[in-house]
Specification:
single chain, 249 residues, alpha/beta, Rossmann fold, eight-stranded mixed beta sheet, five-stranded antiparallel beta sheet, 6 helices, Methyltransf_25, Methyltransferase domain-containing protein, SAM-dependent_MTases_sf
Length: 249
């Protein structure tokens, strides 16, 4: 179903998100949810139908991200493929990539022409002009050290002047006390490094690290890695969209 596999993919029995995506495509059951747990908050639900939205139902920040894409585009962590499908309908040259084989197979069934499965860290195919990582897709780097490593790795599959387009959030508001101060242990790891795990019905996934990075911190890491950063939009609760363009040094 996919063009090529890079590195490892998730086994179906360990893939709650991919299982939810596949189940919704097969059943169109609007009540399906993937339950998300973390080490810092109460459990939350991701409604699976949300992952299948059309461009007209996407928030403004996502549509702006699609507008900024150019050239050959790679949608990283594409999930159900809604962003890639929207770009394809616009006539763009887009490839969707996900570590979930179930998600990749669903994207092909939805009509996405170019789908590759695997881990972005093992990608070694043709280069792209735009890497799109929405719904806090940059979070997959896990930690600030992982962010530094990824920004360097991304250079190997970007064309000259290529760009990364993604959103993230500064979650410091979650640590705000009633008096306006912030309850953060400055000796601990960066407060935006969160550990998650997911469930869909009886399918439980492994724990994984996820990063929410504030804009000032991202700005510093981008400059160090050799990117020019542009803040495209800021939304509620410090949610923002950026473009990182590779410098022609």
């Amino acid at each position: 179903m996919t063009e090529k596999v890079f590195g490892k993919t998730l086994a179906p029995e360990n893939d709650p998100m991919g299982s939810g995506i596949s189940a919704f495509f097969d059943s169109n059951n609007e009540d399906l949810c993937v339950k998300v747990y973390s080490d810092f908050s109460e459990p939350d639900d991701i409604p699976v139908p949300l992952l299948f939205r059309e461009e007209k139902d996407m928030p403004e920040i996502e549509v702006l991200a699609l507008d900024k894409c150019r050239g050959k585009i790679l949608d990283v962590g594409a999930g159900a493929g809604s962003h890639a499908l929207a770009l394809q309908k616009r006539g763009e040259d887009v490839t969707a990539m996900d570590i979930s084989m179930l998600a990749c197979n669903t994207m092909k069934k939805r009509g996405i022409n170019k789908v590759i499965a695997g881990d972005i860290y093992h990608y070694d195919g043709p280069k792209f002009d735009s890497l799109l990582m929405l719904m806090n897709g940059i979070g997959l780097v896990g930690t600030l050290d992982g962010l530094a490593d990824f920004l360097l790795k991304a250079k190997t599959f970007l064309n000259e002047g290529g760009q990364l387009i993604f959103d993230s959030s500064d979650i410091i508001h979650l640590f705000e006390d009633e008096d306006g101060s912030y309850l953060i242990d400055l000796t601990a790891e960066y407060y935006g490094q969160i550990q998650y795990w997911m469930e869909f019905k009886d399918i439980k996934g492994p724990e994984f690290d996820w990063l929410y990075v504030s804009y000032p911190v991202l700005e510093e890491y981008a400059a160090t890695a050799g990117y020019d950063i542009e803040l495209l939009q800021v939304g509620d609760l410090n949610h923002y969209l950026v473009s990182l363009t590779l410098r022609n040094d």
